């Protein structure tokens, strides 16, 4: 269907009672335009500005919540009877309904308790008198450092966004650090990464391609003025069970670097942090479940957690109470009935959206009949939705980039080893990958380009590359074995010669 200048548009309003929400789910190819007409409303804690049109796309599922009550308006194309079969591609959500049963009061109370911790932490830094109610176990002068745990699609990411956004909106100039240790989610960059960023402004929700807001990739900073510069490590796989030892190490690296990078001054330290985790940390059965307590411990140590929130899971709550209840607050919070179950096929589509967005930026086409121009001219479009990037396709020699794979042997199969010889590869051993070998697995592979190693040779060590953060990602789009050259798609024109990269299990094709 075309941009549809000749499609007429009608509006439909929803009136929301106080403490209720409008929930919607979009199908592929559908976008939705919502405007706040009266009252106050928020999406996962980020306030909607009055009269501004917000666009949602790429199968976004979310809710507009209001504390005080509000009216919101959708702009929808008016369909003739012959077009009604096109409803699914025309700005109509496939699921939409109002609900007055939300866990927002409970989440609001958690926010208030965390806010009191921040205020006390700051008072302690300034040497001001500390008002301690003494009636909760979140007293003391530590900034809140919150670990959010819960089973699959319990709403962990949404809770993390709500708590972070409420902190940012508290008017105290807090910049809480959002930590994403769920490699299947992608966070700010591409799936496979774990990362952290201090959040200075509310995280917007528009598309699952950027679940935590947009980031700087190849865009000049002034274009992506609201973009964040996260600190990332590359795990390379979607699932924790693939390499728990590597995950453990990266979590610890991330924690250490957050301390060095974001918490050097006492005041930013008071904002605290919120850690979003994968559901595998909560799964008490199935493969990988034996590693989950190690992973939780890695997070507790690395991020010096002092509050654990368990989203809607009684057994995990009891387990966390037993393990950590004597030294920190462990709180069970309700799961929202609005959380949508996401299947594997959907998650794979979202990974594709995320990779596409990383290289090309994203444009959410408004529903037919609403022109993109109108949004931009009216200043209504946020840079989030129009950031278009121009990646570069370049050819490099095989030897220009040193590529490693962590802890996985890909060359000769075990059956090809001499009888009696066992291949011993540590899970965290970096293995050189030779692009000239036909089974290198590099075609269409996503590679993380690492920060340069220590310039001081004496400080180098074997596994140093495990401890280097990511500076960008590339995809190998063609391999020319006879000429020993490969074509790579990269977000910016910087030279790749001499760079070190790690390949994981993610592949991407346009
Ligand atoms: N109240 C709500 N109304 C509508 N959609 C919602 C609501 N809360 C969450 N969602 C949507 O449900 C989906 C799952 O939520 P979320 O990502 O927060 O869960 P999760 O526990 O982090 O998932 P995962 O299993 O990937 O770790 C997301 O698409 C989210 O936007």
Automatic annotation (TrEMBL):
UniProt KW keywords: ATP-binding, mRNA processing, Nucleotide-binding, Nucleus
Compartments reported by the entry: Nucleus
InterPro entries on file: Clp1, Clp1/Grc3, Clp1_C, Clp1_C_sf, Clp1_N, Clp1_N_sf, CLP1_P, P-loop_NTPase
Ranges where the Clp1 P-loop domain occurs: 150-361
Quaternary structure, from the entry: Component of a pre-mRNA cleavage factor complex. Interacts directly with PCF11.
HAMAP family: Clp1 (MF_03035)
PANTHER family, sorted: CLEAVAGE/POLYADENYLATION FACTOR IA SUBUNIT CLP1P (PTHR12755), POLYRIBONUCLEOTIDE 5'-HYDROXYL-KINASE CLP1 (PTHR12755:SF6)
Family affiliation: Belongs to the Clp1 family. Clp1 subfamily.
Known function: Required for endonucleolytic cleavage during polyadenylation-dependent pre-mRNA 3'-end formation.
The name this protein goes by in its record: Polynucleotide 5'-hydroxyl-kinase GRC3
Organism listed in the record: Lentinus tigrinus ALCF2SS1-6
Phylogenetic placement of the source organism: Eukaryota, Fungi, Dikarya, Basidiomycota, Agaricomycotina
């Amino acid at each position: 269907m075309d941009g549809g200048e000749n499609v007429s548009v009608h509006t439909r309003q929803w009136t929301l009672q106080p403490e209720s929400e409008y929930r919607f789910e979009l199908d592929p190819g559908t976008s939705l335009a919502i405007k706040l007409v009266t009252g106050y409303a928020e999406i996962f804690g980020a306030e909607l500005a009055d009269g501004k049109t917000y666009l949602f796309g790429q199968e976004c599922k979310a809710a507009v919540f209001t504390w005080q009550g509000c009216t919101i308006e959708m702009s929808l194309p008016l369909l003739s009877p012959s077009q009604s079969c096109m409803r699914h591609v025309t700005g109509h959500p496939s699921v939409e309904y109002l609900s007055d049963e939300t866990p927002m009061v409970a989440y609001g109370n958690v926010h208030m308790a965390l806010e009191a911790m921040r205020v006390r932490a700051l008072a302690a830094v300034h040497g001001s008198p500390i008002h301690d109610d003494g009636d909760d176990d979140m007293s003391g002068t530590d900034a809140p450092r919150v670990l959010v745990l819960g089973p699959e699609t319990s709403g962990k990411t949404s809770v993390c966004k709500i708590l972070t956004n409420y902190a940012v909106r508290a008017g105290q100039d807090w910049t809480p650090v959002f930590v994403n240790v769920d490699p299947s989610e992608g966070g700010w960059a591409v799936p496979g990464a774990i990362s952290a960023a201090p959040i200075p402004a509310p995280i917007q929700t528009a598309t699952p391609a950027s679940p935590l807001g947009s980031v700087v990739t190849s865009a000049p900073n002034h274009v992506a003025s609201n973009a964040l510069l996260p600190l990332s490590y590359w795990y390379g796989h979607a699932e924790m069970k693939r390499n728990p030892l590597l995950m453990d190490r990266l979590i610890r690296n991330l924690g250490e670097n957050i301390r060095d990078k974001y918490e050097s001054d006492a005041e930013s330290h008071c904002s605290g942090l919120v850690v979003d985790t994968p559901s595998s940390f909560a799964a008490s059965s199935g493969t990988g479940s034996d590693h989950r307590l190690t992973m939780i411990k890695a997070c507790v140590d690395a991020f010096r957690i002092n509050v654990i929130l368990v989203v809607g899971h009684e057994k995990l709550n009891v387990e966390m109470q037993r393990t950590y209840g004597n030294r920190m607050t462990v709180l069970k919070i309700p799961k929202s009935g609005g959380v949508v179950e996401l299947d594997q096929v959907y998650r794979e589509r979202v990974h594709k959206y995320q990779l596409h967005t990383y290289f090309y930026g994203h444009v959410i086409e408004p529903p037919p009949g609403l022109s993109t121009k109108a949004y931009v001219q009216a200043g209504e479009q946020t840079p989030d939705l129009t950031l278009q990037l121009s990646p570069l396709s370049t050819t490099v020699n095989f030897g220009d980039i040193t590529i490693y794979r962590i802890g996985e042997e890909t060359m000769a199969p075990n059956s090809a080893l001499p009888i009696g010889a066992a291949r011993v590869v540590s899970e965290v051993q970096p293995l050189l990958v030779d692009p000239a070998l036909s089974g290198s697995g590099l075609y269409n592979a996503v590679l993380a380009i690492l920060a340069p190693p220590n310039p001081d040779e004496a400080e180098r060590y074997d596994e140093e590359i495990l401890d280097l953060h990511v500076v960008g990602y590339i995809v190998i789009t063609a391999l020319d074995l006879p000429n020993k050259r490969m074509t790579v798609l990269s977000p910016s024109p910087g030279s790749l010669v001499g760079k070190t990269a790690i390949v994981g299990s993610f592949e991407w094709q346009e």
